[in-house]
Amino acid sequence: MKMFSVAHKTVFVVDHCPYMAESSRQQVECDVLTKSRAQVIPLAPVSKSLWTCAVECSMEYCRILFDVYPKDKLVNYIVSDSEFHILNTWRREDQSTHELMSALAAVGPPNPREDPECCSILHGLVAAVEALCKITELQHEKRTALMDTAERVANRGRIICLTNAKSNTNVRMLEDCIQETISEQNKLAAGSDRLMAIQQCELVLVHIYPQGEDTLVSDRPKKEISPLLTSEVHSVRAGRHLASKLNILVQQHFDLASTTITNIPMKEEQHANTSANYDVELLHHRDAHMEFFKSGDLHMAGTSTRENGVKETMTLKWCTPRTNSIELHYCTGAYRISPTDVNSRPSSCLTNFLLNGRSVLLEQPRKSGSKVISHMLSSHGGEIFLHVLNSNRSTLEDPPSISEGCGGRVTDYRITDFGEFMRDNRLTPVAESSHDPSGKLPVERAKAQLERYTRYWPMIISQTTIFNMQAVVPLANLIVKEVLTEEDVLTCQKTIYNLVDMERKNDPLPISTVGSRGKGPKRDEQYRIMWNELETLVKTHAGATDRHQRVLDCIVACRSKPPEEEERKKRGRKREEREDRTEKNGSKETEDKSWQESERLKGLLEKDEQESEVIKDSPDSPEPLNKKPRLIPEDIHPPERAKGPATLLSMWTNRITVANSRKHQEFFGRASSVNSKFELYQNLKEENGMDAHENGKASR
Amino acid sequence: MPTVILMDVSLSMTRPVSVDGSEEFQRKNLAVHGLNMLFEHMASNYRLEFTALMAFSSLWELLVPFTRDYNALQEALSNLEDYDKTCLELALQGVSSVVQQEWGSAGPCQVVLVTDGSLGIGKGSLRHSLQTLKHRVEDKKFPLPFPFPTKMFIMCIANAEELQMTDALENLEELLRISGGDGQIFTVDGPLCMKSVQAMFGMLIDRAYSPFHAVLHCGNLSSNVQVFPRPEPVVVDDEVEPIPRAVSTDLEIVGFIEIADISSPPVISRHLVLPIPVNKEVDDVGAGATDELEEEPSASQMAGKSPNFCVLLHGSLKVEGMVALVQLGPEWFGMLYSQADSKKKSNLMMSLFEPGPNPLPWLGKITHLGPVSEAAENPYGEDDSKSPFPVQPQVKRSYAQNVTVWIKASGLQTDVQKILRNARKLPDKTQTFYKELNRLRKAALAFGFWELLKGVAELLERECTMLPDSAHPDAAFQLSHAAHQLKLASSGDSQYAAFDHNIVPMHTDFSS
């Protein structure tokens, strides 16, 4: 159904003229006497007036409508006698049966003594057309949102008129009047902001007459009066005929279908230990039956056609629920339901069972006699939904397992830590009123939090030291926060002092020795790695606030002091970096850098592990593998260069480069370059008769 | 989305194609060449697609049922035989039944019709089928539109000029329109030859079989992924927003939700999320694919050993029983979760929700989901005993609020009897008695059913006279008080008939 189909706006116009006070002549016995009181004279049966019938059936229509479409299928209720009374507006908060009942009580039943000459349904119908021109909240929102394509927002609506129409001529008169009013109102609407011209109007005229009388108005299927107006006439006896007519109409108007849940076991009122099986009929959007319609299964044993021949119901069998296992079903649709007979005992038993949080699977009988679970009833927040479960073969069956794909062979993922991370990053509904000063939507803030939490997040255990250390947890949890309190800073500092203490005591660190020969790095080297990693983590946050910076300062101040010169150089570098950070604060580049850095550290570590026996600062030790002109352009790692003989990294990178170079043939140009420079297009110059060599020189 | 290849093997497909060179081809050879190219592409880039091969002439035959074995498909292609005339309608009926038997009618399906554009003559021809479209009886309906959503690709082994000489193109366009309009007709550009047919199939591959690559982000963690099957663009309301929405190639995780809280949400489609190596480039169609195969083992082994975010995410989602909410575009979300195929195999799966601000009512407005840390108090409780979900709607549904409906006489009788039952147990049941009485009063007033109020008042007066001697004196007072109040209400006097007014128990004091 389109957002702005005729179903968006429904106007009820109910006749409140004196003749509606007439009795429907359908009597209700409300005094049910037990045998023990047989001597009492029972109360005379009561009978509803035409008005009462019309009101209760229209309320039932609204009840079903609001149950299935709690939003944006709107009702405007108008009562007509010597004038019109509009009982509510299109506004969302006015859309409830309680509101309408309250307003109806204020109107009361029609006054039989009023002058019938002054009274007419026409007042209400004119008001209904005017109401259809009024813009709804949704129309307004969409028009505003669409801006230059605002004309896509259509204005259509339906008028359901419950009246006693007297004759076919009278019906024609009413139609003409509506047609005329529409053209008038459309002219008015053209010049207004709060009004919209009607593009399509459906008139459903229901003529109500008392039981036992002959109707003077004949039924007529939908016909086009004008391009803007269609009209249909239903002539119905008051009482249960009217009720079932409106029930059919609400289904037609809002694309509903009916499902009967069968075999519901229910305790007997009298005999609590026995149970009988009951059926409950539910209404819901007809898409919940899509699969049956398509497969042609609808016309089979499981369905039945009612006496009126219009309504069909699909039968689904109750499956006694298993224990409340939490499962993610593959569900292709979920549709709100409304019980047809809301306060019958079986209905309320079923709905209460569901509202208490249980789910029920439903079984669909099939042509072949085989059975298949096709639906599920479940409540969410006090609303019951009929879920459609996929019962077809999946096109995604037998996919390659995740362990066979990228990263599938790695075994030391930090699964538990990431689980913790996910708990910390769970979502919660945020009130729309709580406005963030940054003007960001809550989802954007959630993404921002994820960004902060992942600035430094090694994925595997062997890639990290600090996240394997219980002692670091308090700091690691706090530093990712957007804002730190003074207390948080203190906690972080304590954590750092604690680490210093550990280092002093020479406590072992959980450094991974995976893949390394021998015992792994020495203790002081381990601490250096740990401090480096911690610094990397904190550095990614230091730019956020002064307090974050203070945590970083604390680390820098506390970590074991390298030789003095190192220290000085480092400070210099740090200052540079800080400036750098303030420049591109929060930008992607900084993060990437920190990532690179962590990767580099990891690289250092591994290199260190593997080569530690070789490089003992001894002059006899073999030369690094590659002392040829460096293949890597100089400007990529200037800080390392500046560090002078601290060549762990350069050795490592060289090693990687050599390893890589074995995998492919080196570019001719790079292989024969001088100082990483090589003259391009030499052949052109040769062809031009110039000496390539000379040219090469000249270019330098 | 499974594919059915519907291959025309009528005699006209054996028409020779004049090529400048020495060798002479039939149209069938060209079609087979094109299809082989498609299968090779799928085998290396789209290998999870299920494909079936059907051949048709005046009859149809399912040569290869749905499979991922592209060798079998290619083999079947090489053994095609030639038959009589083209009868498309029957073949389409065949497609319909083959697809429904395998996949039901809910899932979408792609149909690739390969034909030379000579669509038969007389009865059974497409022209005849389309002409008689409106005069069909119920059980001889034209098979299109199929009950399942269809993408129809019509590959004409003929060029447009050739087709324009007959009404073939118009008929095919009509066919496409009836099928639902989602699809395309391809014709050969220029003279018929291997190259031009290859180009035409290349266009089909680009249109329907190019793998969907995206980057899955979770803050700074990310992974390159292929989403299979390709997520299709979605039109929510063709009137308000006619431009289809497509899934972004940046899939951004927003946060996490427990499986119990998301509770089997309705989804429009499901997709596998397969991590792919970072440097593997999107394959060029055709020729490039074969070269790549040789290097594949070492490349994939390398990729298997370097950590990938998808694997980490999958592992934790599985262990924790959670899903990740992922943003697919503006106001469009989906969820990532671990899906177990059997005990050993499990996978990262993505389901797409309906686009829009409110796809799952029980989560509230989806863009208003924010981090837990923003809440003053942890909504999950310190020990994970609570949950902020489901979000309660502001108004209760009718079945959750004890509404009054008297459409059936039994409804009214039950309500009256309830009052009488409680009336006989006064004063113990005073509260319930008045509660039920007020409920009935409210409904009677709203429905303008004053006669009922009078009737019930009479019933209460009668009960009053029938009280046994042992009854508490308060019972009589309350009954006559209630009866009096109902009568006042039935007068319509605004002082007593106000909807929100409640009859309160008479204040009596028998203690002294």
TrEMBL record, chain A:
Keywords: Cell cycle, Cell division, Cytoplasm, Mitosis, Nucleus
Region (Disordered): 562-646
Localization annotation: Cytoplasm; Nucleus
A GO CC term assigned to this protein in UniProt: integrator complex
Biased composition regions of type Basic and acidic residues, renumbered to the chain: 562-619, 631-643
A GO BP entry: regulation of mitotic cell cycle
Superkingdom field: Eukaryota
InterPro entries xrefs: Cell_cycle_regulator_Mat89Bb
Protein name: Integrator complex subunit 13
Protein's organism: Cyprinodon variegatus
From TrEMBL, chain B:
Keyword Nucleus found: yes
Compartment(s): Nucleus
Domain VWFA: 3-117
SUPFAM superfamilies: vWA-like
One GO molecular-function entry: metal ion binding
GO biological process, any: snRNA 3'-end processing
Residue span(s) of domain Integrator complex subunit 14 C-terminal: 404-511
Domain Integrator complex subunit 14 beta-barrel intervals: 209-356
Superkingdom of source: Eukaryota
This protein's UniProt keywords: Magnesium, Metal-binding, Nucleus
Chief localization: nucleus
One matching Pfam family: IntS14_C
Record note on quaternary structure: Component of the Integrator complex, composed of core subunits INTS1, INTS2, INTS3, INTS4, INTS5, INTS6, INTS7, INTS8, INTS9/RC74, INTS10, INTS11/CPSF3L, INTS12, INTS13, INTS14 and INTS15. The core complex associates with protein phosphatase 2A subunits PPP2CA and PPP2R1A, to form the Integrator-PP2A (INTAC) complex. INTS14 is part of the tail subcomplex, composed of INTS10, INTS13, INTS14 and INTS15.
Family the UniProt entry places it in: Belongs to the Integrator subunit 14 family.
Protein name according to UniProt: Integrator complex subunit 14
Species of origin: Cyprinodon variegatus (Sheepshead minnow)
Organism taxonomic ancestry: Eukaryota, Metazoa, Chordata, Craniata, Vertebrata
